[in-house]
Give the backbone structure.
Amino acid sequence: MSIPYDAIIIGTGQAGPPLAGRLTAKGMKVAITERGLFGGTCVNTGCIPTKTMVASAYAARLANRGPEYGVATRPPVGVDMKRVKARKDEISGQSRQGVETGLRKMANCTVYQGHAKFESPHEVSVGDVNLTADKIFINVGARAVVPKIPGLDQIPYLTNSSMMKLDYLPKHLIILGGSYIGLEFGQMFRRFGSEVTIIEMGPRLVSHEDEDVSAAILDILQRESIQVCIGTKCKGFAKQGDEIIASFDRDGVSVEIRGSDLLLGVGRRPNTDDLGLEKAEVAVDAHGYILVDDQLRTNVPGIWALGDCNGKGGFTHTSYNDFEIVAANLLDNDPRKVSDRIRTYALFIDPPLGRAGMTEREARRSGRNVLMGKRLMTKVSRAVEKGETLGFMKVLIDADTQRIMGAAILGTGGDEVIHSILDVMYADRPYTVIKRAMHIHPTVSELIPTILGELQPLAAGR
């Protein structure tokens, strides 16, 4: 016998709980399922715990730099990893408990803990219980990719999830992958006191960014004595005593790196393998991402996919925006679309990278008449005063429409400053709105109008 509901939500990540709140507020009877920890990646193994640890690493770095500011500290400072983990667990745990408590207290919402699987397009089983609904929302997230590399299955390794359990300081952390996860953890643990080596197969770090951004990030990491190996071909891993050995080729030369711990940071894959999607005839792509339209509907009427599992973003903010899009279309008669949103994200190394819209490379290839303004952070008073002058800012403008095409803010406060640019992009207003604005001194944001007053033509190219 099946229990009928108006809607079933599979997963309690960033899109599921707020959607449950909107649906129940409209009088719908909702079932929400969770087979793991409430709150999904962001709350448990992503944004909240990692940025809490980034904050601890920043404090350690600042304490070590105390003498530069006239503060009497004695570098190197000590880092208590058990306390770092306890602080992270406390903050993450509060968020997780808040999500679970909110759902369990929500009127017209029933929580089922267990592995949900489709039995048909309108039926889901959770253990021995069968649930039915005309509307089903999939919000199951993603997990770390484990690449097929010889010897990897014979050694212990860490992922972004298992890193959350570490309460000790690795002597030498080897990181496979030079993008978000690898760079954030690499800098973090170097500041805690580990020796760190990052191994990247591509020709540069975060290769989807512009070359000047990649080069500046490399400089930031190398200034903190992080070893970076790019353009590598990984041959295999082995264990010898207490050491993990990474073997790879670089520029035709065989290289071995010996470390104490290994972190995999080579990408993510959706948690769609064991949902029984075939029984519901829900289509997925070659990588397992659920195919959706511009309103996040799957090919099966009455089934939606939100968050990381649809391949439309892979960030907490895109997952939450997925909820907003679905709720607007279903409940508010507001035809919002995925294609309306502007690509934006941050890389939370220190200093952080805030990004919005096109890269310089994409702008060059667009065939449009492009203007660019750029300024080093050494020319920003606020950065100089803080003693944090690494990085730069650049903004791209369509000369004909005067609209902002994109921006990269790599520098202190860059993850916040980017929003002043992003908001004008969403308003579809000319860049002169910011250029003519009076910003507060001394801030990083005050230099955006200055940059926009120093635009130069950008040559087309690759």
